[in-house]
Amino acid sequence: MTLAQRLLLAIGALSLATIIALGFGVREAWHRSEEQRFRDQFAQALEPLGRELSDELEGLPLLSEPLCRHDPLVDSALAGLEAGDLDQRRLAISVHDDHGQSSTFQATYDQRGLADAGGRYHQMYRGSGRNRTVFDHPSVARQGQAYAKIIAQARTRSQKARVTVQENNFTGRAPLEPGNLALVQLLARVPWVYNEMGAKTAGNSRTAMSIASEQRYAEGLLVGIERAVPLATRTVEQPSAGAATLRNCLVQRVEPRPGHYTRPKAYLPYHFDQ
User: Could you tell me the residue ranges of all domains in the chain?
Assistant: First the structure.
């Protein structure tokens, strides 16, 4: 091979290596730029959400005090909010009702999910691909599952309807991210039991539930919580004093005439009938 040919090959190899290195450099720079752009957009999206949540939290005491004036459970939650130690609590609860479902729909959801036929548990997550986030606190998940079963049993007795521990499914429900765990449970560091109750009343999704239904739901939750995380100092007799006062806690004016219930408008969903 002549010197000219060797020089030509060397120049070609050097050019190829330079192009490849430049390509990788450009790709890495683009990747960093995209990551920074995403972080900036995410921060911009969180800022108004943070302000809104802050405003809502500031109004929480004003909203809850007329509903349950000096109720120990509400006072404890507000104290924890002010102290900033809610993430150290033993149990977190979400309470929901679904006006698209009849009263036969009753469920609790934990952070562990349901085992398969072989007794194996799968990942609890939200998102897909690189945006998939998996719940990775196994001891919390096991404890939360135990709590969910206790609460489901208490609700079953109180509501006189079978309440089961189920697994959520958010897949195919755009714009929600796919997965099987509510975001509040996914991001929590404590056991979080998510509760649902079918609230469609008299076949009408716009009719509010009766006070009796709300009371049975609330009493089942309260008794279940008391059994799941009992006081360290003493045993609470069931039903507790708190359960006995739930009816007064749920409404301001009860049955001005037989069978008719009124609620403050602040506690009614938009466009719902009394």
Answer: 1-56, 91-267
